[in-house]
Amino acid sequence: MAIHVLAVHRDTVGTEQAAGGSLAGAYSVGLLCWLLSAGVYIAAKWVSTEMPPWALCFWRVLIAFAILLPIVRHHFSEMLALVSVRGLELLFIGGMGLAICQGLIFVGLQHADATTAGIIIALIPIITMILARLMLSEPMGRWQVAGSILAFLGIVVIIVKGSPAALLRLDFNPGELWIVAGAFCFSLYTVLLRRAKFDLNRLALLVLLLGAAALTALPFYLYELAVDERTTLNTSGLIALAYVAIPGGGLMYYLFNRSIEALGAARAGVLLYIQTIFIAVLAYFILGEKLQTYHLEGAVLIIAGLLLIILLKPEEKTAGA
C-alpha cells in the first residue's frame, strides 16, 4: 500500500543498518521522531486560543527550513538546478503537503481535541492508498476496499460522537472536518511526490519542500496579521512555537529521514500509527483530555480496516495478464 512519507522518492531499505547500525537503534530513531511529532499536536492545541494557526504553520516550516539548510549545503547546486527546471511543481507539492495540510490541522485544533485529531490522522495511509489507486493505478483488492469502508465508518463514528441523531441533523464539529481535510491534503501530497520522482538527495528535497511550504503559508500568515487579534506572541505562544519549529520541526523531519535510511520507507512509515497512541497519552497528561466511548468505537473500526489493508494485500497481476 502507499505509505505515509514526508520526503520519500525511493524506497531505499536499510542503507545505514547494512553499514553496521543496530535495528533497535533505527527503530528508536523512528519512535522518537513520532513522539516529537505527537508533541506538535499537543502544543498547537495548548495555544489554540492564543495563537492563530497560520502563524504557527508559517514559522514552523520556515525555522525548520533554516535549521536543515546548512546540513544540505553540499547539494546546493543540484537543488538550484531542480528549482530552475521544476520550481512550480516543487512549490505546489511542498505547499500542499507541508503548509496547507498543517494549516488546516492547526485550524481544526482550535475546535477539536488533540486525541480526536490523532485518530483522524491515522487515516492518512488509507486515503493515500485510495488516491494512489486513482492517480497511479496501484493495485487495490476487495479487502482493501472493505478495509477503507470500515475505516471511513470509524471516522464517521468519531465525528458524530457515536450519535446517529447527530448525523441526521448534520451536527458536526467543524474542527474535525478541517482535520479530515488536512489528512486528505497530506495524502494527495504523498501521491504527487511519488509520481514526481524528483532525482535529488532525500534530505535536500525535504529542504526545498519546506521552503515551498513557507512561501505558501506566507500569504495566510500576512492575512492573519491584518485581521487576527492573537498575532502578538505571549510566553505560551513562544514556547509552543519553539517546540513545533525546533524539536517538533527541524529535528523531527531530520529523524524521519534518518529512520527511512535505516529501516526503509515502508517500515519507517508504519510507525506513524504509534503517533496516535503518543498523542492520546500526552493529551491525557498535559491537556487533561480523556478517551471517550466514541473514540474507542471509532478506533476499533479504523484498526480493523487497517489490518484488512495491511495483512490481506491484493494479488499482483502477472506479466502475461
From TrEMBL:
Query: Where can this protein be found?
Result: Membrane
Q: Where is the EamA domain?
A: 28-159, 174-310
Membrane topology listed for this record: Multi-pass membrane protein
- TM regions (residue ranges): 26-47, 53-76, 88-109, 115-136, 143-163, 175-192, 204-223, 235-256, 268-287, 293-312
Recite the UniProt keywords alphabetically.
Answer: Membrane, Transmembrane, Transmembrane helix
Family of the protein in this entry: Belongs to the EamA transporter family.
**What PANTHER family does UniProt report for this protein, alphabetically?**
EAMA DOMAIN-CONTAINING PROTEIN, INNER MEMBRANE TRANSPORTER
Q: What is this protein called?
A: DMT family transporter
